């Protein structure tokens, strides 16, 4: 399995306006030039991201609906107190959850909630910038 496994939440895109999601699996750099081909019946599509800034909040334990929503809310509160308060992206997804550990690992788990930031270069977001609020 790859790490992180990234699950993006798309509010209102599911049946009866429920939230939907899509899952991204990271392909290491060594395989990106000629990626393995998935089975056609899996209906998988490659997706590329350009370099961009994201706001991240780390949390431990298993990523469950109850704690992921709380962590996303805490990230939103932190962003509201930062220079990037009005810089969250208008992308399809509201937020993403990055999970770095196998489901068989019970202790020392690492997860993150991600939110895309737009216009971040103008607001001081650089690839090596770290801010905590």
Automatic annotation (TrEMBL):
Q: Which Pfam families match?
A: SOUL
Its signal peptide is: none
Q: Which InterPro entries match?
A: Reg_factor_effector_dom_sf, SOUL_heme-bd
Q: Which family does it belong to?
A: Belongs to the HEBP family.
Recorded protein name is OLC1v1013121C1
What organism is the protein native to?
A: Oldenlandia corymbosa var. corymbosa
